[in-house]
Structure formats: C-alpha cells, structure tokens
Specification:
Blueprint lengths: L10 H8 L2 H9 L3 E4 L1 H17 L4 E6 L6 H10 L2 E4 L2 H9 L7 E3 L6 H9 L3 E4 L2 H8 L7 E6 L14 H13 L4 E7 L7 H19 L7 E3 L11 H10 L25 H10 L9 H8 L2 E4 L10 E13 L2 E6 L20 E3 L10 E6 L8 E9 L8 E4 L22 E5 L8 E4 L2
Parallel strand pairs: 1-16, 2-3, 2-9, 3-4, 4-5, 5-6, 6-7, 7-8, 8-9, 11-13
Antiparallel strand pairs: 1-10, 10-11, 10-15, 12-15, 13-14, 16-17
Helix pairs in contact: 3-11, 9-11, 9-12
C-alpha cells in the first residue's frame, strides 16, 4: 500500500481548484505561482482574539511578518487594527507603507541597528530589547518621545538560546530603566520559545507576570508580557500522521534518503492555533496555583502574542506546472516549473510532507497509480520539492498542475531566490467579493 499523507480537506480550496482558475493563471502568468486567501487570515486572527476574550484576558495579536512577505496580509492587519512583528528596516517600512500604525508594531530580533531603533522610536513602536548593550543604545537615542520597550527574557528551559537577558542582566536592566526617567517607557517583558509545547510557555509567562510586579515596585509601567509565537498548525489528520511516521523509510524517498520523526515539522498537532492559546491560558504556571489567565487578570497584565504560521493556516498554496516526467526503476521523477527554493522546508534538510494535489490539464485515459518524486527546474541534484515518492492517482503529464497545500506559513518565500535567473513565483490574491461563489484575483502588491 502506498504511503500517503493528504492534508485536511479544505472546501474553499477545492472550489477554487474545480473552477479552472488555476489553469488560467498558470497560462497567463507563464509558470508557477502562489495563491493567497486573505479571508482565511481574517478568520484566524478573529479566532485568536476570541480565545483572549473567552479567557477574559486583555491582549493584542501581532502577525509575525517573517512568515510571509506578501503585502495582502499586512493590509489585513492594518484594516483590522492588528499588530505586526517586524525585525528589519525593510519589514518596518513595508508595514508602515501598507497602513499599519507605528504604535501597532513590535520590533524584535537581536542587536538591532541604530537606524532601525531610531525609526521604531520615532514611530512609537514597541521594541523588544535583547541585551544590556542594546538597552544602553536605546537610552542614548535622541528622540522627542519616550522609547517603548519590553525586556526580552532568556528562556532558562532552553539554555542553548542566544536570545534574551538572564537573571543578573535583568537585575541590572530594571534599575537602569527606572533611572532613565522620560527617555524610556518600560512596558513589560517578552520571550520566545522554540517548539510548540504548552506548559513551558505557561510557566515562563507566569514568571514574567511576577517580573512585572517586581518592576512596578521600581516605578516602571510593566503592564504587559509577550509570549512570542510557537502556535502549531494542524496540517494532516492524526491517524494519517501516525501511520506515516510508523511506516516511512528510505525506500519511500528518492536516493534512499533516511529521515527520523524528529527531522519533520509536527504536521499533526492535537492542540493547535487558537486552541493552543486557550490551553496556555488555562494551564497553571509551575503546575500549581491559579491558571495563567487568572494571574494575568489579577495582576492587570496584558498578553501579547506573535503568531506567524498559525495566522496563515490554509491562507494560501503553491502551484507548479509539470514540465516533464521520466521513469526510474519502480517510480518516476517529475520536473516542475519552479524550484525547491519556493518550498522552503527542503532547504532545511527536511521535507514538506502534506502531499501535492494533481490537477490534470485535461482528462486522461491512464488512471493507474503512479509514484514519483518531484524535482525543480534547476541543475542541482538536491533541488527536490518532494524527495518522497508521491502516489499520484495517474501518471502526470506536461501542463498538469501540482498544488502544494497550505504553504503560506514560512514555505512560499523564506528561501526564494532567482537562481538560474528563473523568475520568482508571483503571489496571486484570490477572494470572493460579497460572498460570491465566483473567485476573483489580483497580483499581490
């Protein structure tokens, strides 16, 4: 039996695929492209906000812009009054240029350049300060308004992290902020944890609430904490994921590539997106006492979060026309109009596992299953969009389309490059005006 891992059914995407629009776009654009569904972004943002409201917690959602470069999602943030998490001058300019207010930005990242700090301060953005050195540079900025800052906490549970201030550094930073007077407005603390576990986030958030109370004793504002991102996306059903991890082996991949479960993103997560936020708020810091939501309410602390992938769940997919098919012993190799630089997981020595859907250009007579890996159009042996031998329902033919589902979060453009001077796949924004069944489209600006 062929090893399969289809994504969760998506009725909206299925309607678009059945409409013939993707074939028209591939013809008109002359190659591969990504399509975006901003209405899904709106729904995901609303779901996170609902989770905060249900818990009775004051909070703000910031979209982590690094997850996708499209302007469409920033425009939706501006329209909805949501925040945006930026980490470079370019991201800051893009957010401001598409209508996001300065006070709705949070600037993260290590050792930020002075030019970035200065613009952030002038625009009233919130700056997550990563080190004592950076704090001193912030305090020496000559700006007409106080610089809004969070102090980023080093995560003790992840001692290999290069980010944040440890206990001694925080002990030095707090009185420094208190003595700075009107030059700085210390609004609280932040952290970012790798992985997707609930309890470590609750534990560290509880510690940050206590730090806020400590900082207030020094006269600092300290009324908010940011718990960063790390809200998983559930791409595939539980049973399919468990069978895949149990059954997959080198014979399932071109070149006999060997993977362990730890090499893959957890494509199934029983607690994902807004439900993960609910679980974090319901858990008890340190496993005892009041739930985190109650501690936040009692301390008068606002919760900030910076999801990227989770706000982009089902908000876009990647489309690649088939250019050619060749046969190997027991399987085939497809070459598509595009490269794995536009499907980023492969460039982290991993694999994007939700399998592509085959959209034939025209009905074919050959309906026999055909296993094939998927290669890009470059001259690199390693340029494989799917090392896995996908079980297609029929032999693909040139002109057919492969649709990789749910790629908006980190896959489309994190590592894109015009290698070989191949054009970058354009992004196409698809929506349904006034609830119309007929989709309309435009190029992302």
């Amino acid at each position: 039996m062929a090893l399969t891992l289809p994504a969760h059914p998506d009725p909206l995407a299925e309607r678009i695929h059945a409409s013939g629009l993707l074939q028209e776009l591939a013809h008109g654009l002359g190659g591969g492209f990504h399509y975006l569904l901003p209405e899904r972004f709106d729904a995901n943002l609303a779901a996170f906000r609902t989770a905060l409201t249900e818990a009775g917690v004051s909070g703000k959602v910031y979209f982590a812009k690094k997850a996708n470069k499209a302007a469409a999602f920033i425009e939706r943030c501006a329209r909805a009054g949501a925040g945006v998490d930026v980490a470079s001058p370019g991201e800051l300019r893009e957010a401001l240029g598409h209508g996001v207010r300065g006070e709705d930005l949070v600037v993260t990242g290590p050792a930020k350049a002075e030019a970035l700090l200065r613009v952030a301060a002038l625009q009233g953005a919130l700056v997550a300060v990563d080190s004592l050195d950076e704090l001193e540079r912030v305090l020496h900025l000559d700006t007409p308004r106080p610089v809004r800052i969070l102090l980023r906490r080093f995560p003790p549970a992840q001692p290999g992290s290069r980010f944040g201030l440890d206990d001694d550094q925080l002990d030095a930073a707090l009185p420094r902020c208190a003595s700075a007077g009107a030059r700085v407005r210390m609004e609280g603390f932040s952290f970012h944890l790798s992985g997707y576990e609930v309890q470590p986030r609750t534990d560290l958030a509880g510690e940050l609430v206590e730090l806020c109370l400590k900082a207030r004793a020094l006269g600092l504002q300290a009324d908010r904490i940011s718990i960063g991102g790390g809200f998983a996306v559930d791409y595939v059903p539980a049973g399919s994921w468990e069978r895949f991890l149990s059954d997959q082996g080198p014979d399932d991949y071109h070149g006999g590539k060997a993977f362990t479960a730890g090499d893959f993103y957890p494509y199934h997560s029983p607690v994902a997106g807004p439900d993960a936020l609910r679980a974090i708020l319901a858990a008890r810091p340190g496993g005892a006492g009041d739930p985190l939501a109650q501690r936040l309410r009692e301390a008068g602390v606002m919760l900030l979060l910076e999801p990227g992938r989770a706000l982009l769940d089902r908000a876009g997919s990647s489309v690649f026309p088939v250019q050619g098919v060749k046969d190997r012993a027991g399987y085939g190799i497809l070459t598509v109009d595009g490269t794995s630089l536009s499907l980023s997981e492969q460039w982290f020595n991993s694999e994007y596992l939700p399998e592509p859907l085959l959209l034939p250009r025209s009905p074919g007579e050959d309906a026999e299953e055909f296993r094939a890996c998927v290669g890009g159009a470059s001259c690199l042996d390693s340029d494989l969009l799917s090392r896995r031998k996908i079980a297609f329902p029929a032999r693909p033919r040139p002109g057919d389309l492969l649709v990789y589902p749910n790629t908006a979060g980190y896959q489309m453009d994190s590592n894109e490059s015009p290698f070989h001077e191949l054009p970058l796949p354009p992004k196409v924004v698809i929506d349904h005006p006034d609830g119309s069944v007929r989709p309309r489209w435009r190029l992302d600006r």
